[in-house]
Amino acid sequence: MEAEPPLYPVAGAAGPQGDEDRLGVPDGPEAPLDELVGAYPNYNEEEEERRYYRRKRLGVLKNVLAASAGGMLTYGVYLGLLQMQLILHYDETYREVKYGNMGLPDIDSKMLMGINVTPIAALLYTPVLIRFFGTKWMMFLAVGIYALFVSTNYWERYYTLVPSAVALGMAIVPLWASMGNYITRMAQKYYEYSHYKEQDEQGPQQRPPRGSHAPYLLVFQAIFYSFFHLSFACAQLPMIYFLNHYLYDLNHTLFNVQNCGTNSQGILLGFNKTVLRTLPRSRNLIVVESVLMAVAFLAMLLVLGLCGAAYRPTEEIDLRSVGWGNIFQLPFKHVRDFRLRHLVPFFIYSGFEVLFACTGLALGYGVCSVGLERLAYLLVAYSLGASASSALGLLGPWLPRPVPLVAGAGLHLLLTLSLFFWAPKPRTLQHIWILYTVAVLWGVGSALNKTGISTLLGILYEDKERQDFIFTIYHWWQAVAIFTVYLGSSLPMKAKLTVLLVTLVASAASYLWMEQKLRRGVVPRQPRIPRPQHKVRGYRYLEEDNSDESDAEGERGGCGGGGRGDCAEEEAPPAWPRPGPEPAGLYRRPCPYEQAQGGDGPEEQ
Fold first, then answer.
1. In this predicted structure, what is the pLDDT of residue 481?
2. Pick from 377, 363, 373, 299: nearest CA to 72
3. pTM for the whole structure
4. Residue 157: phi, psi to the nearest 5?
5. Following DSSP, what letter does each residue of 425-478 receive, concatenated?
6. CA–CA separation, 174 and 142 (whole Å)
7. Tens digits of residue pLDDT in 176-191
8. Partners of 247 in the β-ladder
9. Region annotation Disordered: residue ranges (predicted)?
10. Between vectors from CA 33 to CA 28 and to CA 36, what angle results, nearest 5°?
11. How confident is the model at residue 396 (pLDDT cuts 50, 70, 90)?
12. Stronger pLDDT, 169 or 100, i.e. the higher one
């Protein structure tokens, strides 16, 4: 069988006529220089450009998948560990045998306070941290803090659990704000790499048409939230494969429970203080925590090794150079934008509904009636329903923009009204199929809510200079909602459902009002992003503190006392060299090439 010829002939290889090719040009060491270093005659520039941008697009897809998988593993490990930890610490026998009089319930309450209260201050520091570290490195740092929280459970003491919980609370908003910003930036970059010919025709400074990246944003947000909602299922693996083997059945744990569902008060009033039949061995607990720690490290490696940068280096410099005071103020200044003000109720409801699924629905309706041993399966049903339904966001290009959000709100409205009038009986399994159905449908509504809000923010705010501020505001309001739920955990179920219902109706009405304003052509008032004030010394940014500038040049070359950057758009520099004497008022230092050709410029004259 004859071997195929190589795609490109090897330089210096003998041709069909020995040391000379068919044109008579000598080959090998005697070959002309152009033959060796010149452009290959069969080089197809258009094909190579197409291959280059195809690799760039595959790199963007790799970034989205790595960030999504990293977020899923991080949140899954955190939820799974916290759930297992709270169940073990709730058991009276486990506390007395393993920890004695150490005051474990008090440590747990302070730990939960650190996780829920600390994010309230996140609006003050999140934009500064994201701009300082960069989007990718902020994600990596926050995932590392989650891993730190996991590691402290090897030695459960006040001075390990509470400080790590406070650090975790500080990292919650920066992590998810940077994740949302990262996915939006990947959609914009994918559009640039898919339409590179149009970008070349328009010029590098011309921005793409508004809304052009929306189809890619819908796909990437659907991928991200499919992974994110799977984290609730991943969190139940320690429960299913480890802790369920040690739990009492529902007849023991629910013996004193009288009311469930809409008639319940607080969280599992009357629940038995002993839920473990036998205590798990310390060695088995260490094995489980080691597996969770390994998964947390894997999430860190995914973000570190597979996630590329969200911005070019020069763009990162521009984002930082608007001034740290401006970066601190801009999230507050965005309150002027009526679109954000109208979306705030939806931001709050987004935090309410997730926590209600994990506490109100799963505990007040699920565990209260069918036992703690079925908690994991209820949350798995919610997780799978939400993950599968995240793909419904792909229908966005063929539907009016309000449909996904309004459909999710309508579904949650029907479910909330149904739950308002349903009080399942304790220790009864006949209605367990209703619980699974409600969990799946609630997951469908959650998926429409999450993908809809994130996609909407990415479409309304396309400027890369403000996306991190917008996602910070979104996730900060979610954190405020979660803090509110934490404060009201002892309220009756009817009060919780009423708050949920009022917030849902208000958020849907406010959002539709915003869409109506946009259709009428009301122009939103956005705060101005200051121009970058570069302090980098070098040939890219030269300002008043230019290290290459002499004192005489600084006196003659300034524009009203400012640097060259202040007058760059007002006055074009004169052509060089020019015939005749150089005007005294207009002065420009020659570049190194000009100095080499014509001396040191005006200083020689």
1. 95
2. 299
3. 0.81
4. -135, 165
5. PTT--TTHHHHHHHHHHHHHHHHHHHHHHHHHHHHH---TTTHHHHHHHHHHHH
6. 7
7. 999 999 999 999 999 9
8. 276
9. 1-33, 524-605
10. 60
11. confident
12. 169
